Amino acid sequence: MNEDKDMADARTILASYRASIDNIDAALIHMLAERFRCTKAVGVLKAEHGLPPADPAREQQQIARLRQLAKDAHLDPDFAEKFLNFVVREVIRHHEQIAAANGVTKTG
């Protein structure tokens, strides 16, 4: 009987954790959507002014900044860097598409 109660309690706790994870996932998706809305605007601005889609110096600053934030938050800095690199590659891809649509050649 006690095992049944323990299992029921575990399932209740698990459901609570999963509800929190679902909420966090939803927030992450909304935050990424807002981030990409802003980076697309940056891509348009760069294309309008003939600036290159990539900014390696800015990317390096962001990597250092996010690695420190990850350390402070007790998150693996390598994971944070991989995640940022993934996002930045997608942003650059968008910027290249925007530049091409605006007749800007790829220069960096």
Automatic annotation (TrEMBL):
BP terms from Gene Ontology: chorismate metabolic process; salicylic acid biosynthetic process
Record-linked SUPFAM superfamilies: Chorismate mutase II
InterPro entries in UniProt: Chorismate_II_sf (IPR036263), Chorismate_mutase-related (IPR051331), CM_bact (IPR010951), CM_dom_sf (IPR036979), CM_II_prokaryot (IPR002701)
Domain Chorismate mutase: 8-99
E.C. code: 5.4.99.5
Single Gene Ontology MF annotation: chorismate mutase activity
SMART domains: CM_2
Domain of life: Bacteria
Keywords attached to this entry: Isomerase
Isomerase is among the record's keywords: yes
Pfam families documented for this protein: CM_2
PANTHER family: CHORISMATE MUTASE (PTHR38041)
Name of the protein in its database record: chorismate mutase
Organism: Mesorhizobium amorphae CCNWGS0123
